[in-house]
Each structure stands twice: as structure tokens, then as C-alpha cells.
Specification:
Blueprint: E1 3-7, E2 10-13, E3 18-25, E4 32-39, E5 46-51, E6 57-59, E7 67-72, E8 77-82, E9 91-99, E10 105-107, E11 111-116
Parallel strand pairs: 2-11
Antiparallel strand pairs: 1-3, 3-8, 4-5, 4-9, 5-6, 7-8, 9-10, 9-11
């Protein structure tokens, strides 16, 4: 059974920081591109950051320079370090795993991030 379990969400004031974690089980983690998406109320889910098997990363323009995605294949975990948080970052953040050949895709349940201005 595949599980992606997010943690680290919470409430923070603008300018603050949070670190999200996503622990994966039931998959060969190193074969997956891992990503973080977010969905704010009334908006579509959007890509925040993605990291490939070889460590290549890409980010949404709105978070470049503030967020950092990383992975630890030994721990089957992907992280999202979020700094200089803004009220616009308030959303439910979801962990995503896509197999290298795109044959499989999995989602976590989400973790709430609330930034107050």
C-alpha cells in the first residue's frame, strides 16, 4: 500500500518559516519525481516545486528564492523549506510522487499552511 504522509504544516506570521516533510512508503522512492503542490480556497491546485530522481529542481515563479525542495532517498522523504512566507502562501500543501515513466502517480492527504499578515 502506497502512502505519502505530509507533516510540518501550521500557522505562522508573514516573514516566518516552515519546513514540510513528506514520508513515502510502498514505493521505490528513488524512481520517483517528487513534488509539492498547493491549493488555496477557491483556486486550482498548482505546482510549487518539483525534484527529479537526479536532483534537478524547478519552482513556481512565486516561490523562487524563498522555497527550497530537497530529498533524502535513504529516508524516503522529500522536504520543502519555506522562508519569507507571505499571506498568499496560505493553502493546503500536497505531496506528489510520479514514477519516472509516468506510469504511476500518488498524492498525499495534504497539510494546511496558514500565513497571517
Amino acid at each position: 500500500q502506497v502512502q505519502l504522509v505530509e507533516s510540518g504544516g501550521g500557522s505562522v506570521q508573514a516573514g516566518g518559516s516552515l519546513r514540510l516533510s513528506c514520508a513515502a512508503s510502498g514505493i521505490i522512492f528513488s524512481l520517483y519525481t517528487m513534488g509539492w503542490y498547493r491549493q488555496a480556497p477557491g483556486k486550482q491546485r498548482e505546482l510549487v516545486a518539483r525534484i527529479t530522481r537526479d536532483g534537478s529542481t524547478n519552482y513556481a515563479d512565486s516561490v523562487k528564492g524563498r522555497f527550497t525542495i530537497s530529498r533524502d532517498n535513504a529516508k524516503n522523504t522529500v522536504y520543502l523549506e519555506m522562508n519569507s512566507l507571505e499571506a498568499e502562501d496560505t493553502a493546503v500543501y500536497y505531496c506528489n510522487a510520479v514514477l519516472f515513466n509516468r506510469a504511476r502517480e500518488y498524492w498525499g492527504q495534504g497539510t494546511q499552511v496558514t500565513v497571517s499578515s
